[in-house]
## 1
Amino acid sequence: MNAVCNFRKCVTIRLITAFCAALLSATAALAATEVYRWTDENGVVHFVDTPPGDTETQRLEIDEAYRPGTTGAYPAPGDTTTGDGDAPASLADQRREKIKEAHEKRRTEAAERERLCALHRQRLQQVEPVRRVLYTDENGDTVRMDDDERMALVEESKNYLSRNCD
């Protein structure tokens, strides 16, 4: 019987100790919204929740800190505002947008370059092997291209293809 009482006391003490530890950690999480900023001798800026004793610190007020049980501290996925509805997107979102725009610009430029490469390849297939090239001018008349014009077009297309196409 004595052993059972000692066991119950031991369990009770451990439960009380665990409860107190949980309570202290919850209190510490609530108190962690205080942030201090300080700079060390190397110029490195530190942000901590407890100020160092021998260094000049600046206490920062943080309104949007996460507190257990609160909602709205973190934006929903895909939300580009910072929480109050009309604030600008974060720097990371702005950077992502710039990267996306640059990627789209490169994609558009590559498509245009590929279109021009296809046109120059087609021109070479049509003009290079044939000595007599006929075309319709702006008046609707069929005209024969002279050899100097034909060779200039061939040279222009070859130069473009060598500079811009695979």
## 2
Amino acid sequence: MGRALLQVQDVEKALDVTISKAVEGPINNFVTDSRKVTPGDIFVALVGENFNGHDFLNDAFSQGAIAAVVTQEIAEPHFLVADTLLAYGKIAAAHRAKLKAKVIGVTGSSGKTSTKDLLSSVLSKFGNTVAPSGSFNNEIGMPATILSADLSTEYLVLEMGMRGLGQISYLCEIAKPDIGVVLNIGSAHMELLGSRAAIAEAKTELVLSLDAAGTAIINADEPLILSYLPKIQAKVLTFGEAPSSDIRVDDIALNQAGLPEFEINSFGESSRLELQLAGEHQAMNAAAVVAVTQSLDLDFAKVVDALAKAEPTSSMRMQVVDLPNGITIINDAYNANPESMRAGLKALKAMAKGRRTWAVLGEMRELGQLKVEAHDEIGRLCVRLDINRLVAVGEAGKILQIGAAQEGSWGNEAQWEPDVPSVIAKLKKELQPGDIVYIKASRAIGLERVAEALISEFSAENSAP
């Protein structure tokens, strides 16, 4: 399917270079993975720490690429540039300039992907919507999402992550968002940036990039975000529990399935809403979605109805799996920070309903000087919530276990395991029908392997003759 809105001369203008030789036919798409090249595509040879797209040029051309973006001369038609990653961004920016869609950027220390998924689900009820699957939120993934949109796209939802100051500004130069959402300021990236104030500075680059025609959606409960109000040129809508919020959330409670129920209020209209996504924190994500839709003048009642029906789409984010033997796995292992881990543990407690609860927790990374304090607090929270069993994994897991022990855990309630295989062995041996297991850590720890192993083990056990 041809999606590209650019012709060769558009690419030449965007990159300020001339193609080495003429090509025939229209451009189909711009592809960075040689395995996904189809006839008519232009292959962009990205270079990373562990890969070099130039090694796969033959594969790309054999599969029908009509040209490539490269940093070295080749025999085939090509655009010669100094940096293929920057070139990819320039191509995406040129493509975005031709789109008619409303572009919505979403960032925050936590909840970006869940909010993006909710936005995509709701906006699709009002028009053709494009959003990334998973967390395509960096300088490679975000341009790929932009390039997947075409002239029929009415809403383009983009997730924006960052690893330092200036990165979201760079993404905004490409995306030129009409609406920017800053969800929250947490502890993630503390190791990299040093303080929550610096994290706020990096995250608010999104709303500071907007001009007077844009709309900034910000969290009214976050003083660090509100401090940037005088610098924002765009119209501002706020969401949160604060009485001053334009979109206000009241009376949040978790039901026995761990799903949040709450009152949502928007410019004189209100409704009781229950989401299909587990965790108290999802209420704020939903409020941000309502704020976006109100800035687009969409019908409030229809928006609330769409939110109530929206189901989880991205894996490993409060993903609940009920196994045949009565064990429930909550796979929340995609990533972790103190804020999201606290919310997940509260959801586990709400879902318990008298069942034995397990928290399988590993390191939360990028916390810098907060590492010991944050892990200690989570260990103590497990005790205060009366989680029956804590299994702490890896070196940082020792801090979790010690925190639980000092808060009042005893015996085998809080145990430490050195690695993922030992956790899997323990759980396979000790889990009983009816148990509910919550699994969370930073992605690099790989705790999703625990969920996968348990699901495989107990599903196969049930199906054995």
## 3
Amino acid sequence: MQKEERLKIIVALIDQYGKVEVEGLARHFDVSRMTVRRDLRELEMDGLLKKVYGGAYSTANLPIHNVNDIYVRMKLLAQEKQNIAKKIAAMIQTGEMIFIGSGTTTTYLAKALSLRSDIVVVTNALTVVEELATNGSMTVITVGGFLRRNEYSFYGHFSERILRDLRVDKVIMGMRGIHPDYGLTSDFPQELQTDREIISTGSNVIIAGDRTKIGYIATTLVAPITKANIIVTSKGADENTIRKIQQTGPKVIIA
């Protein structure tokens, strides 16, 4: 495992549990304790944690780098993501209740819907709430839970208990990987069950994913590709992969 990947995982563990131990990290990564200490020292210099004897814990300024990650990613392929968002926004009908998941493209979707007053939006994403909060005429329902700071989203069993009782007309989600054989995949296993519950809240599932997501396989299976009714992506997505996806059932729209 490369150092950069180790650092990301350490930050994610600190983000979730509030602390990590050198011994446990060394076993997890199959590296020496000295290597782990160097990793922790580097992260401490970046202000992402505070080293203590035997490990490290989160600091008040941990979210500064981590939280802003989603806003940094929103600048990547921004026009393509906005095009996808506009295409999906046009699919939302008057009177519908929709669920908008977390992510960069779904945040652009919230921007595109921000002036609507004829729909109800349910979300577990703070970025979506932020975009819709100034619209005093739109009904917005938030799903709380454990905070995933780098995504500004909520997940976990508190979220899942609410989601099990929820039914919406359309579910719109971003997805890290969209593959005809390996399905809809995520790089954050802790959010796996929450994502599955989100998908189950509606029978009309729209997946938003720019061209880099098409054909990519992330670490954790969220759902088979057939769970998606529509996949909206951007120009430049691999045409062969798109054909295979459509052969399995979902309709693919290029924005």
## 4
Amino acid sequence: MGALDLLVHCLNFAAPALGVALLMRFFSLLSQKFAKRSQGPVAGGWVQLGVNFTVGLVVLAGGLWFFGRDGMMATYGALVVGVGLSQWVLNKGWRV
């Protein structure tokens, strides 16, 4: 495998984590707009995106380690749960 193939494989591995992190940030902005909460999020937008992307990559790497291959639906389910939980923590969701 050449360097370009390795780069493409790594980017395709990270794409679901980035997609879920971007969607989570978008829906977080929507919920803040419609909920009209008096306090904003604890972390800024770029910090939320970076943390969610990192959590997503860790979950995907854990799924690759556990199952021995990537692309398992259980890993994608864990990705959604993990990124959702990190977004909840970043927004201090327990303080409704």
